[in-house]
């Protein structure tokens, strides 16, 4: 597989989700995204306004995370967070499912949680990605969570927060692709550090990549 640097950049949510991220670190991520023209900049909700303003005049989206990183906040809290983030300028929302309810077999609760956030997101014409945190799931649960994401009305299913025991794996993306079919979108995130790893995820079925190593990967793409 071979993409141009510009093509690969549009797969990337350039990510700065570290809890210790300072305003300077956020501004650096904005500048890097503008230089390479990534798909989005993904940051914690506190920084949405700053990133939205910093990306003015570009087609780069502002992406944020909801119920992050555990997914165990109430649905009402997730909906409030989502509405506030969109008001602050978020174009894309990456929410974490209620992992405990999924593992407990309460699929209705999982779908209701997703649907409430999907409704709040789509009401404003924005995009919802749903993080299922594959590191904590069996293969059966990965497939079931992916199908519930579709049922809940989201736009993407996403592998990982990057804050659990492991991140995106090619095998998981393949399981997710088989579960959701050929057209539903998948985001692979967490632990993607090289050009080959990026290509492997895309070839397995990922439509978007969540990466903090965007600059390193895109510079590697320019050398191929």
TrEMBL record:
Q: Note whether Lyase occurs among the keywords.
A: yes
* Enzyme class, spelled out: lyase
Q: In which pathway does it act?
A: Carbohydrate degradation; 2-deoxy-D-ribose 1-phosphate degradation; D-glyceraldehyde 3-phosphate and acetaldehyde from 2-deoxy-alpha-D-ribose 1-phosphate: step 2/2
The Gene Ontology biological process annotation of the record reads:
2-deoxyribose 1-phosphate catabolic process; carbohydrate catabolic process; deoxyribonucleotide catabolic process
Localization (cell): Cytoplasm
* Molecular function in Gene Ontology: deoxyribose-phosphate aldolase activity
Q: Where is the active site?
A: 94, 158, 187
Q: Which family does it belong to?
A: Belongs to the DeoC/FbaB aldolase family. DeoC type 1 subfamily.
Know the name of this protein? Deoxyribose-phosphate aldolase
Q: Which organism is it from?
A: Limosilactobacillus rudii
